Amino acid sequence: MKVSKGIQILVPRFKDECLLSKGIEVRDLLKVRKETVLYVQPCASERGKLMADIELVKEPDAQFIDPPTLCSLLEIHRRRFAELRCSPNLGVAKLKWKGREISIFKNGKLKIQRALNRDEILRIANSVSRLIWGAAVCEVCGQPTLSCASGKCGKCTSGEKVAVQIDGLPNAELLQQGYANLEKAQESPEEFEKSLRATRYLALFFTMEAPNKDDAALGLILLGEAEQVGAQKL
């Protein structure tokens, strides 16, 4: 991937069937499957608050989330959580974020507790789906979507590359800072670890904050490149 003056990036074009293109937006899933939000009911422990179960896939018995990748992504964003526990062996993560309690399971089920209303549940679910998107397993290659973004899976790219202007995107500064840190990591060995951590955080932050999934994918692509750079250093 190439950055030109912090304004334009050259990124691979991904196949439509790839999960990096399709996304796992809860709002999109609701359009085709109302059962995505399984139920909403009052919290037993806190009056006036709601809890909900959300299923990102139709087959809740299958493994949809790669647990090690999930824990890695959550660790990148740890500073924004009040609490975080993630077990790769059990395939379960529990976190507290903005006063809400969230559980994530490897079968693609989310549990949200202490939400104010249904609209907030959907907002939180959409943000969490963006956060864990890179850990969701792509049907095209059978690997986490982050592997698609990094080019590791090898089956999801069309072989073409497209130029994207990023300076006009909402929160474009997150991407620009991310690429600047990635460049610093490659050019300055003494700054490698610090700059790579900053790249990962900024990339995932952009993915969560982007207004639509097409823009959000650019954050995952940057995160994928950071993973490549990190792997080359080992």
In short:
The protein has 234 residues and is an alpha+beta fold. It has helices spanning 19-22, 26-32, 67-76, 118-132, 145-150, 172-187, 192-209, 213-233; strands at residues 2-4, 8-14, 37-42, 50-55, 83-87, 92-97, 100-105, 109-115, 157-165.
Order of helices and strands: EEHHEEHEEEEHHEHHH
Our count of helices gives: 8
What about the largest sheet? 6 strands, antiparallel
Class per helix and strand makeup? alpha+beta
Strand portion: 15-25%
Percent range of helical residues: 40-55%
The radius of gyration computed from the alpha-carbon positions, rounded to a whole number of angstroms, is: 18 Å
Could you state the oligomeric state of the chains shown?
single chain
What is the number of independent domains? 2
* Average pLDDT taken over every residue: 88
Tell me what the CATH architecture of the largest domain is. 2-Layer Sandwich
CATH class of the largest domain: Alpha Beta
Kindly report the spatial arrangement of strands forming the biggest sheet. Answer: 3-4-8-7-6-5
Which shape, going by the Cα principal axes? Answer: globular
Distance between the termini: 21 Å
Please explain how this structure is put together:
The protein is α+β, with helices and mostly antiparallel strands and 234 residues long. Helix content is 41%, strand content 24%. It contains eight helices and nine strands. The strands form two sheets. A six-stranded antiparallel sheet has the order 3-4-8-7-6-5, covered by helices on one side. Strands 1-2-9 form a three-stranded antiparallel sheet, with no helix packed on it. It is globular, with a radius of gyration of 18 Å. Mean pLDDT is 88; it is low at 1-6.
